[in-house]
Design goal:
Helices cover 33% and strands 25% of the residues. The chain is built from 20 helices and 27 strands.
Length: 667
Amino acid sequence: MKLQSYVADAWIAPEGKLTAIASAVTGEIVAETGTTVRDFKAMLDQARKVGGPALRKMTFHQRAKMLKALGDAVMAKKDELYELSYNTGATKADSWIDIEGGAGTLFAYSSKGRRELPNDTIIVEGAPEGLSKRGTFMGQHVLTSRQGAAVHINAFNFPVWGMLEKLGPTLLAGMPAIVKPATATAYLTEAAFRIMIEANVLPKGALQLIIGPTGDLFDHLTGQDVVSFTGSAETAQTLQRHPVIARESVRFIAERDSLNAAVLGPDAVQGTPEFDLFVKEVVREMTVKAGQKCTAIRRALVPAAQMDAVEAALKEALGKIVVGDPRDEKTQMGALVSTAQRNDVREKIDTLSKEARIVFGDPCKAEGKGAFLSPVLLRCDDPAKASRVHDTEAFGPVATLMPYKDLGDAIALVNRGQGSLVMSLYTYDPKVARDVLTGSGAFHGRLFILNRDCAKESTGHGSPLPNLIHGGPGRAGGGEEMGGLHGVHHYMQRTALQGSPRMLTGVTQEWMRGSPEMREGPHPFRLRFNELELGKTLVTQPRTITLEDIEHFAHFTGDTFYAHMDEEAAKANPLFGGRVAHGYLLLSFAAGLFVDPPPGPVLANYGLDNLRFTKPVKPGDSITVQLTAKSKSLRNPEMGEVRWQVIVTNQNGDTAATYELLTMNAV
């Protein structure tokens, strides 16, 4: 199988001398690669001039629908991908994380796009900022799609998930992508890529693939482009030093391999559930994907008094791990991705052995023609004086066990890893967790706390999730991928808009206080979604709040809080100086004032956002409500969400309450 690149919506076969890719299991040739792309400038131009404009014309909801279709396509042909994945050395369980986990990331971003983003092409971020006394000059942050290409450089260990976890937020942000997989497992990436192209849901130029060398690709990057890298620290540093990256201020997102740690809390002694969970998780992280995970546990820190017990438990559990052909259902750990990778791991073990001793496994033992290696556990009894265990990573089924004297010592040792993607802590004591967070949180992108309460539903130390940040400081690269909508923002530009409320309303399609209001005509609730214009406003007649209203509401709801029922106690309250109406009474009366009772286009009221009670309302005060259509977002062909700005004022014009009402309106 000769692997092909996909450029300008066409497949390109390799030329010249070919490089063979061997099966990690049998050593047989499974694919060949060679030089494919010659004109990288043209490739970038295709993304910027064809793919980018097409994606930017689509709304977030349309892009979200596209992501779901891509995920469905991958799932429909997952069995083909599983069969290919065995050649990477991965077991069925390993491949599930890669293949179905990758599709799941697309589904997650599709869901977030439809639920949390507008049916629009820009994101309005945060509340408006007042910049003048009279409110005629305002500011508003917005996010728009960058007008370049996203270059995705992926690692060999997750050839499907590694591609899809970047594509989800990138395509949702409206940016075209150029994917460059690692050669060792490029045949699996190419197969998954073909499935997405054949789904026929992507605009032309939205997605391209490079198999083989990248030539002068980086020479043609601009400040509108984004480079997202996953892999080794050495490669990341080389790419970041490229003169064009610095000259053009190319946005560079790096997710690098790191020396992730697991810490057994001082309370988690032998016999506790947390002790057992620690052992189970360390073994799992050593053996899943044969330890070839950027999040795998490399350093296991335990109280000095627990060292022997933990070592014995780990050795017992590792001794039960069956290493072999990943197609065999009995196999629990497959092969490393290649013999070259196995050789590299052996070299790193040799380096670590200068400060630690091997207590389980034989790195020199070879099994068959594949790249098999037994799990290797090392023990370093004086980690404070060691250095290699804190800066050398064996990217395979390898971990080092080390003791700590007290929690402060554990934190100091963990931080010597110089920044990681994830640290896990096994404790049932919240104070221990708090101390670890404040002492070490700045060194880790994610802190995973596992104990008996969450163990059954936990996704594990080594599982990045699409709704949480995947990245870390320092050695881990300083980047952040995924993280829900945070990941989408990496591929967008934040801009501060300044202008009049009317202008900003017109630009953002979100009504801003101070913009024109349309008070004439029918009640806003009589207008269908497509008929309703932003700024459509209803100002109600006033209603006087009586003491009888307050007491009736209190007895009817059971809310007899003293501020509503006890005049003397309420007078002593410095905020009130006497009895006041319930905040929720104001909301109820406000709804009664602005509601239009007969059946109509308003199908449902499904929530309030940003509710604030800003001034107490006392018996005898009158309230008036202003209801204004703030924004609209079509949800499906039959209905759309309308967000209303609600302002409740008293007889003096002072604001008593503000909130945003959400309704679903018929189209």
